[in-house]
Amino acid sequence: MSHTLRAAVAGTCLVGLSLTAPGVARAVQHTIGDKDYGLRVITIPSGRATGWHYHDGTLYAYVKQGTLTRFDATCAPDGVYGKGSFLEEPPGAEHVHLGENRGTTDVVLEVLYVLPHGAPLSRDAVVPGCTPR
Predict the structure, then answer these.
(1) pLDDT in tens, 13-23
(2) What count of other Cβ atoms lies within 10 Å of the Cβ of residue 35?
(3) 34 φ, ψ to 5°?
(4) What is the separation of C-alpha 6 from the centre of its chain, rounded to a whole number of angstroms?
(5) Which of the ends of the chain has fewer CB neighbours closer than 10 A, N or C?
């Protein structure tokens, strides 16, 4: 699938998700060819984290609320994403990461997963033996 078509699918899904009523559980998934496209809303409460994980495919996220701090496998911060920010997470076990909410309000992410057909949304990873700074 071309980058233009992927961008169009991502944009359409994010706009559609944004137009749904607040507080409604929202998830959308479609398969096109050998890819699964899943759209979900993820909430990370204040002081909580995602746990160490990685994805088999690329993840695109929009920060709808709050501030997400992301750490790589060395526990070094590799991005701080505030409301209105977009981020992309590359696929593969070599891209283990942790997302953390260090703020006082919930982080709300609108996430598009582009995964190989049948792959899970994420895979748990071994804690790398360091503490995020």
Answers:
(1) 555 544 444 44
(2) 18
(3) -100, 20
(4) 16
(5) C
